[in-house]
Backbone:
């Protein structure tokens, strides 16, 4: 599914003293399936991009096109179809929960989207296994879970109705390294086997460097640069917009500065092999 | 959460009303409540209405916030007019009742917009400390009062968040008609009450973690001492009380 | 002072901390540990200085040990940022002028002095974390416990907050950072690993990070630069730990 942002500006609380510009003249075009990252420091408008794609808010100027739907001021017909195709995992997973048990929470999306409701319990268990939880969580209160379990449950609630576009908002903050590796595996399967479009909104450059195909850099409401992974090699640019250079990239930059030509690998084992070859 | 300033939240602007001492504000409010309950004289009620309008202007809060509440009470005015017609009361008395409603609601709004919640709790605590001889558990009482006062705005916030969360997964409130919206509000009421109670508990726990000595007193960094404007407004309210006493034949 | 903080939980967990320590706790039992610090538990004994944590002393303990929770990152007790920070100082019954001066000085240090009159809901996540840490650090506790919040900071803010925490540590404070991000262990002096509510490993940073197999089995992993060092040492390219990029490159190609 295509996502096109056409000169979108988003301002909240207009004509009051609390007025704030969240996005200023953003345009981009996503057409193929793959993993796209929007990287920026906090307060740069990343969450608003997710809200606009899921049609939870309306842009002040400009238009957003998602497949055949257009979000730009006029009322969207059949908006539930749009929400069915775009799954949005909020930054604070507890904001997504409003049912009494985990089981109700998971089956909510399927019930109201009327999606394969005959095999509900089977799909509920499958969704839990996909993110790394198990059946013992079914009777718990979602608000009583700890942060990591709540994040996994939020992802399961979105994956259960099989949307074409998946938006993850600051998902990797607070995950342990095992969970991050599981997530990388899951995202790669979703991309290659099921041909989904995955949008990562994050400030964790080291994680995004390992999975992403294409990168958009946001800073203070504007889209500064877009390109493939190599724009994350530029140390001055990232320092000026308050982002950390990915750790692999800073090591390779240091090697290159001292005159030893090493390629920019994404995997640590390939990097070790490359360095070994150069040393000996 | 993009929109704030629903019914009765603090509007951060510096005006002569926001610098008043909260204990004096509370005493003024109690005088107004007494007059609204007991006074049926046209003059006293008209002057109270004038006082409220002047205070609304002096508070520097945009008028449209006050007019929002005024507009949302339109059904109550219609109800009062129907009741007055049914009981064959005169037009003057009917207008007096309507102005009483406006006075109470807008005065509460003025207090809410110009007093920060921490200051109002501090004011109530100080006021109740005059009754210390009754040995009431004042700080626990004000703590509980704080959570009650928070309940209604919190309910609206939770309702907004639940609507947003459920619209991401299948129920879009904005595209439903009025009857379905009312039906869904009733259906979700129990759920939203549970969530509001949970959130209220979280805020209480968070503030409890930072009440280091519950037995001693707490200060407030916003409160000013009693000054010229306090005496001025207090005198105005006392004059109204005196006028009611004269009119009612007590003096 | 020797052994200012003593923690015991039945027979499974037992450790002591001196002043001027920065401890990081890894593993999957973080909320269990925080829960025993906040509420009185039958099986746990926590000593802070000379005071034991129980139902009567809980207010004194909270003045000495402040816990900054991740769950409360979006829960605010005041309508503006300044109210939020001043809440703790008001509870200590400080006078109005002292509160104003103290907040002015400290908020400049944390670089949030321009945000003092804003609504806390409208701040970005990095500023929220700074505000929360400031509102606990401003009452000068002896122990500061951080629950999984340093990962929400932007890069420059993280360096700023770590600097401030280092000054706090040198002044005699104890920092306990309960985290899932193993990269933060490079800033700590001591590591404790709690897994399934049991103490698995305790010791200085580099000696615990040496236990590569244990950390991988528990799902914790290693910081990037330590992992590079480990691989290079296995292949015989370097012979001891080099903790910064420049030193590592210098040692590889001598």
Residues:
């Amino acid at each position: 599914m295509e996502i096109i942002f056409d000169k979108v500006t988003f301002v909240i609380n207009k004509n009051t003293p609390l007025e704030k510009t969240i996005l200023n003249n953003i345009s981009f075009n996503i057409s193929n399936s793959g993993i796209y990252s929007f990287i920026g420091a906090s307060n740069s408008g990343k969450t608003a991009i997710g809200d606009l794609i899921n049609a939870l808010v309306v842009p002040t100027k400009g238009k957003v096109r998602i497949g055949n739907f257009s979000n730009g001021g006029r009322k969207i017909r059949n908006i539930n179809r749009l929400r069915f195709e775009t799954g949005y995992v909020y930054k604070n997973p507890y904001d997504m929960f409003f049912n009494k048990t985990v089981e109700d929470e998971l089956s909510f999306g399927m019930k109201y989207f009327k999606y394969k409701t005959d095999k509900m319990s089977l799909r509920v268990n499958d969704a839990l296994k996909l993110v790394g939880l198990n059946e013992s969580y079914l009777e718990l209160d979602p608000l009583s879970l700890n942060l990591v379990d709540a994040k996994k449950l939020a992802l399961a609630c979105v994956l259960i109705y099989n949307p074409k576009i998946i938006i993850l908002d600051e998902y990797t903050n607070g995950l342990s390294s095992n969970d991050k590796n599981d997530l990388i595996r899951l995202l790669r399967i979703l991309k290659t086997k099921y041909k989904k479009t995955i949008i990562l909104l994050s400030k964790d450059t080291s994680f995004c460097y390992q999975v992403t195909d294409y990168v958009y850099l946001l800073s203070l409401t504007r889209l500064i640069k877009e390109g493939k992974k190599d724009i994350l090699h530029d140390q001055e640019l990232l320092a000026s917009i308050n982002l950390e250079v990915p750790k692999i990239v800073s090591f390779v930059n240091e090697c290159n500065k001292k005159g030893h030509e090493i390629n920019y690998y994404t995997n640590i084992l390939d990097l070790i092999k490359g360095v070994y070859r150069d040393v000996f | 959460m993009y929109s704030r300033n629903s019914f009765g939240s603090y509007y951060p602007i510096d005006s002569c009303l926001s610098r008043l001492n909260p204990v004096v504000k509370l005493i003024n409010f109690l005088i107004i409540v007494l007059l609204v309950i007991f006074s049926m004289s046209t003059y006293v009620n008209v002057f109270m209405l004038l006082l409220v309008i002047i205070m609304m202007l002096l508070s520097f809060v945009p008028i449209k916030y006050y007019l929002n509440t005024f507009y949302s009470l339109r059904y109550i005015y219609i109800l009062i007019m129907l009741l007055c017609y049914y009981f064959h009361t005169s037009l003057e008395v009917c207008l007096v009742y309507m102005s009483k409603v406006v006075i109470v609601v807008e005065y509460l709004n003025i207090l809410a917009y110009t007093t920060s919640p921490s200051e109002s709790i501090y004011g109530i605590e100080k006021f109740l400390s005059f009754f210390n001889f009754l040995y009431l558990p004042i700080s626990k009482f004000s703590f509980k009062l704080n959570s009650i006062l928070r309940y209604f705005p919190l309910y609206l916030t939770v309702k907004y968040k639940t609507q947003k969360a459920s619209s991401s997964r299948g129920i879009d409130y904005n595209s439903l008609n009025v009857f379905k919206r009312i039906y869904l509000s009733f259906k979700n009421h129990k759920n939203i009450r549970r969530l509001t109670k949970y959130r209220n508990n979280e805020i209480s726990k968070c503030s409890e973690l930072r009440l280091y000595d519950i037995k001693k007193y707490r200060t407030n960094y916003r409160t000013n001492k009693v000054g010229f404007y306090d005496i001025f407004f207090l005198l105005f309210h006392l004059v109204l009380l005196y006028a009611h006493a004269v009119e009612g034949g007590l003096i | 002072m020797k052994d200012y903080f003593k923690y015991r939980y039945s027979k499974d967990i037992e450790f002591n901390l001196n002043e001027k320590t920065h401890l990081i706790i890894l593993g999957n039992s973080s909320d269990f540990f925080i829960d025993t610090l906040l509420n009185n538990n039958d099986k746990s004994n926590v000593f802070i200085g000379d005071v034991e944590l129980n139902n009567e002393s809980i207010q004194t303990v909270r003045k000495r040990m402040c816990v900054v929770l991740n769950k409360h990152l979006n829960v605010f007790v005041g309508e503006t940022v300044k109210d939020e920070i001043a809440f703790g100082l008001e509870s200590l019954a400080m006078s109005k002028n002292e509160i104003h001066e103290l907040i002015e000085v400290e908020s400049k240090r944390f670089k949030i002095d321009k945000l003092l009159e804003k609504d806390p809901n409208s701040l970005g996540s990095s500023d929220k974390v700074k505000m929360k840490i400031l509102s606990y650090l401003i009452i000068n506790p002896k122990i500061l416990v951080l629950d999984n919040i340093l990962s929400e900071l932007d890069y420059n803010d993280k360096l700023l907050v770590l600097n401030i925490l280092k000054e706090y540590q040198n002044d005699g404070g104890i920092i306990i950072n309960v985290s899932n991000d193993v990269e933060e262990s490079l800033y700590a002096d001591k590591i404790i690993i709690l897994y399934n509510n049991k103490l698995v490993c305790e010791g200085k940073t580099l000696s615990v990070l040496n236990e590569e197999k244990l950390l991988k089995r528990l799902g914790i992993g290693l910081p990037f630069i330590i992992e590079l060092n480990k691989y290079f040492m296995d292949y015989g390219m370097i012979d001891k730990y080099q903790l910064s990029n420049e030193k590592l490159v210098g040692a590889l190609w001598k």
